[in-house]
Design brief:
alpha+beta, nine-stranded antiparallel β-sheet, globular, DNA-binding
Length: 215
DNA sequence: CCACGGATTGGCT
DNA sequence: GCCAATCCGTGGA
């Protein structure tokens, strides 16, 4: 795990437009250090939001109490509450004042699976299908990682919640599609994911993806 | 496998 | 009052 910390992504990695940052977040490691242990996983699905041009973005209508973290410049965590019971988290993107973020939608667990399971199901052991269900969606990720409103605004260059380089195992192809669960700005193809990965949200758009790039 | 509806509360008109 | 960047259980094909 020291290798994760030494490859922590620097602030300037995040200081560019969300639509550009988003595909580069695929394959990176999302890590949380708790007193009970480390929870970490590989990002496999994201969506970009940019309030300057994107009506679906929480930041589209200008700064409010809820979305102010999105305007603070890249490299912070924006956590919001939705549907009366779920949290979702974004990596803030861009330069200060622009109101951009990248929603983390799918993570492949790497470390701390028992901790994730305790948070999701109240017990440490998981079956195969339950493991896939741990983090295959934005609300599920926040439950598994124990992320709530209290973590809104956390600096991602700190030592408790951060992103790290993916290491040597990142042979995958990134594809894109329209975003999921929104009604405005549907035409933007700002959802990026690893084709065929088990931890990508199950959706019919998974069949109509477009190739985007590979590493 | 797929489609649909209910849960439940904060944010904004 | 209306609606939401979701999830889960149910019911039918």
């Amino acid at each position: 795990m020291n290798s994760l910390i030494s490859s922590k992504l620097p602030k300037d990695f995040y200081q560019r437009d969300a639509a550009e940052l988003a595909p580069d977040l695929i394959g990176k490691i999302f890590c949380r250090k708790l007193s009970s242990g480390i929870i970490a996983g590989r990002i496999v699905e994201v969506e970009a939001y940019d309030g300057r041009v994107d009506e679906a973005s929480h930041s589209f209508g200008g700064i409010t109490r809820r979305n102010e973290v999105m305007f603070g410049g890249g490299g912070f965590l924006y956590v919001y509450f939705t549907y009366g019971m779920y949290y979702c988290c974004n990596v803030v993107a861009g330069i200060k004042g622009t109101g951009q973020g990248v929603l983390i939608r799918g993570i492949e667990p790497i470390e701390g699976i028992a901790l994730m399971s305790r948070n999701r199901y109240g017990r440490r052991k998981v079956t195969g299908q339950e493991k896939i269900n741990l983090t295959s969606g934005p609300g599920k990720i926040c439950i598994a990682f124990g992320i709530t409103k209290k973590n809104n605004g956390v600096d991602l260059t700190g030592d408790r919640i951060f992103l790290a380089e993916g290491g040597d195992a990142d042979n995958f192809s990134v594809v894109c599609s329209q975003r999921i669960g929104i009604k405005k700005s549907r035409e933007l193809e700002w959802r990026f994911f690893i084709e065929g990965n088990n931890y990508v949200t199950k959706h019919k758009l998974n069949k109509t993806f477009k190739t985007f790039g590979s590493q």
